[in-house]
Amino acid sequence: MRHLSSTHPDDPHFISRSNWLRAAVLGANDGIVSVSSLIVGVAAATPDPATVGLAGVAGLTAGAMSMAAGEYVSVSSQTDIERADMRRELDALKNDPEGEMAELAAIWRDRGLSDETAQKVAWELTHHDALGAHMRDELGLSEALAANPLQAALASGLTFSAAAAMPVAASFLAPAGQIIPAVLVVTLLALVMLGAIGARAGGAPMGRAILRVVVWGSFAMAVTAGVGRLFGVSV
């Protein structure tokens, strides 16, 4: 697919950020919630700050590697699907170019163009970039939305580490006996920050994004606490 020019290259559309932003928000949210829950659980079981801090660092390291590897593998699977569809379109364009042009014209007719205009659009797009036209108009794939496994892995792993570092730091800096409340407060503040940053990066309403992240992050921690109490562990 050819690169599409933009009339405002210095101010790209927010959709161009969707791949890395999704991975970044997922990584940061998981880093905050999972590592905070781990620290609180360990702190409830033992008051030793060194043990709590070690558990937090271990959770941060393992979680970051897991998130990065998971994103790379899952997004690579998406890339494989896109490449398979691209090969199918190449074969179809080679073996049945007239049928593919008719299919493209039908797509544009369904979008509201007259038959004559749709035929003309299909002809021009086919002669300009047949594969790109079918990938975009038939399959909904474009450069802006193309899967990028390495980008997703880096975004998820790095944001997990940065976000998880906040409750870990709180556990090290909290006074003796105050690790749990300190970590919970820092966690809520971190969730608010994540919601605000994600909203700004994605051009979304900030209040709604903050509320969504805080509510679901708190819910996840509450469920963790409930499971801990169910099995006789005070979290």
Keywords:
elongated, 235 residues, disordered N terminus, mainly alpha, 0% strand
Radius of gyration: 24 Å
Largest sheet: none
Shape: elongated
Q: How many β-strand runs?
A: 0
Gap from first CA to last CA = 52 Å
How many domains make up the coordinates?
Answer: 1
The number of helical segments is 7
- Helical amount: over 70%
H/E element string?
HHHHHHH
Strand residues, percent: under 5%
Helix vs. strand class: mainly alpha
- Could you report the average pLDDT, rounded to the nearest whole number? 81
Instruction: Pick out the low-confidence regions.
Output: 1-6
Please characterize this protein's 3D structure.
The protein is mainly alpha-helical and 235 residues long. It has one domain. Helices cover 80% and strands 0% of the residues. Helix 2 crosses helix 3. It is elongated.
Task: Describe, in short, the structure shown.
The chain is mainly α and 235 residues long.
Architecture blueprint of SSEs:
Blueprint: H1 18-45, H2 49-95, H3 97-110, H4 115-138, H5 149-173, H6 179-202, H7 206-230
Helix pairs in contact: 1-2, 1-5, 1-6, 1-7, 2-3, 2-4, 2-5, 3-4, 5-6, 6-7
